[in-house]
Amino acid sequence: MAELLLLADILWVWSKPIGVGIYDFDFRSFFPCRQPWQRSPEVTAVGRCGAFEEYRVEYEALLSEGIRLIHTPEQHDKASEFGQWYPLLEGSTPQSKVYAETPTGEAVAESFQFPVFVKGSRQTSRHQKSLSIANSPSEFDYIMVRYASDPILSWQSVVVRDFVRLRPVEGNSQGKVDSSFEFRTFWWRNQFVGGGRYWWEGRTYQWSANERSEALRLAESTAKLIDVPFLVIDLAMTVDGNWIVIECNDGQESGYAGVSPIALWQNILEIERS
Ligand SMILES: Nc1ncnc2c1ncn2[C@@H]1O[C@H](COP(=O)(O)OP(=O)(O)O)[C@@H](O)[C@H]1O
Ligand SMILES: [Mg+2]
């Protein structure tokens, strides 16, 4: 059951645990929370209620109950739809193409050199390597057959990206995409509020102060280009030592990964207070 919480008398959160450890956060255990019986007819709230199936539908439904989610449907799409954020970030993220119709490997070869990275316009299928990296046009065709029957991928447009060699952090595990030197960063009103390892399960890795400030410089300019209230930017370092943007997402839907949720929400409250 979702509930409307007022954090520290400042920030409304529409909160629902979804049973995913890296996403859920028990606000009540770490922040003073109230559920005022009387409130203004409309409040603006951050949704922490899992992935939205149809943002606009859920946005309108909540609005009719006096709860306005922090992102308009347009802002949500700008942050999470590949076709929306990619054109804003060309140059700082691997060169990519969104295909409205499933392309053939041959058609892909006209625009890309193999190997290519392939995913849905919103996400991969749980980071499965065999569905994400195509080494040849025929391998690409085979992947597309599997996309057609994959519950996560079949309804998304196909995105093909230049395959970029990323700085590795450890070997691959159980058929997943190799973990690389990647970090997740959270941005609240274009201000940095939290960053940490993207691959939080495996071996630990840390950015040096220099690496961190370079990464944050790229992420900050990225945040300003996308310019939505609550944004997540995932960054990776290439084998050449350059930072690139891997993807953006709506902060309402993103798991914390290696980011401390306590520090994150404290930083957000701090900004809202001032
Ligand atoms: N263009 C690319 N080249 C090489 N590796 C990539 C590329 N894009 C993504 N990856 C790797 O695959 C992982 C998953 O891709 P991502 O786009 O983040 O999918 P998801 O939306 O499912 O998280 C990334 O964290 C990164 O390690
Ligand atoms: Mg990702």
Automatic annotation (TrEMBL):
It comes from the Bacteria. Residues 143-268 form the ATP-grasp domain. This is ATP-grasp domain-containing protein. It holds the Pfam family R2K_3. InterPro entries: R2K_3 (IPR025643). SUPFAM superfamilies: Glutathione synthetase ATP-binding domain-like.
